[in-house]
Design brief:
Bound molecules: glycine
Structural class: alpha/beta
Strand content: 15-25%
Radius of gyration: 17 Å
Largest sheet: 3 strands, mixed
Number of helices: 6
Helix content: 10-25%
């Protein structure tokens, strides 16, 4: 099934080495290696039958390669979010230009203060969106998102986060009712109706895979997850994201897919 035609990514900037990190995966990113991994990521996406818009690095925002957070793109509209991380908030103003190439102003919506929302907290399952209430996404942000989605005939429900940074740090939808779940999401009632693939704790990072037009991109180095995804019948590609992992970032964070 072809669902996505476009992908937007932003090149990592040199300042990425100062990006936000929980320290869960220790070490400073190696910038040169991060660039190579980003090249590989773009190549993998191109194999999934999408065109890839590559935005220039933005040195003002160390985390700006994680382009999924300042915008959410749906089948009917684009939503510019209001990132809850202060050092990342300005990224929302820098993504608008790219989004305008695909949506007219009548179909670009905005999450406004005091609402905060980051795209990493939003998981699209058809026309329903699960939204993590996290340190970055607040109740008012979710209220505004719910209102915007309703305008376009889509729905939304809140999932409370206890441990992870973003919702998609721990749970990701692979279409066809298949969902990768790890940690705090394994037994969540919200996801009871899906075919859940439980990710072993030692491979928890790889819960963050992305489905792109029937291919699933899996982070390199997680054999149990790779096999589980292949057993579901998907074509797979692997990309090493070691330098982004040090900033708590994963495959989904690095692109907008629509
Ligand atoms: N380093 C990615 C983030 O914390 O948003």
């Amino acid at each position: 099934m072809k669902k996505f035609n476009h992908v937007i990514v932003r090149r990592p900037c040199k300042a990425m080495v100062e990006g936000i990190t929980s320290g869960l995966y220790p070490g400073k990113p190696d910038y040169e290696l991060a660039l190579k991994e980003h090249d590989d990521y773009i190549e993998a996406l191109k194999k999934c039958d999408v065109d890839v818009t590559v935005l220039e690095a933005d040195e003002r925002y160390p985390d700006s390669c994680f382009v999924e957070d300042p915008a959410l793109i749906t089948r009917a509209c684009a939503i510019i979010t209001n990132p809850g991380a202060e050092s990342r908030n300005g990224e929302k103003d820098e993504i608008i230009g790219a989004v305008r190439k695909f949506f007219d102003d009548d179909h670009i919506e905005y999450i406004k203060a005091p609402g905060t929302l980051e795209g990493g907290d939003v998981m699209m399952c058809g026309d329903h969106f699960y939204v993590g209430r996290s340190a970055r996404t607040n109740e008012e942000g979710i209220r505004q998102l719910t209102e915007i989605l309703a305008k376009y005939g889509m729905t939304c429900s809140e999932v409370k986060l206890e441990e992870v940074l973003h919702l998609k740090t721990g749970v990701n939808y692979l279409e066809d009712n298949n969902m990768l779940v790890s940690g705090e999401f394994v037994d969540k009632e919200d996801f009871a109706s899906y075919n859940k693939v439980v990710i072993p704790e030692e491979e928890a990072y790889a819960a963050n895979c992305i489905w792109v037009n029937d291919t699933v991109i899996v982070p390199e180095g997680y054999p149990a997850v790779l096999k589980a995804v292949q057993d579901l019948g998907y074509k797979t590609l692997t990309v090493d994201t070691s330098e982004y992992r040090k900033l708590d970032g994963g495959l989904s964070c690095l692109s907008l897919r629509f």
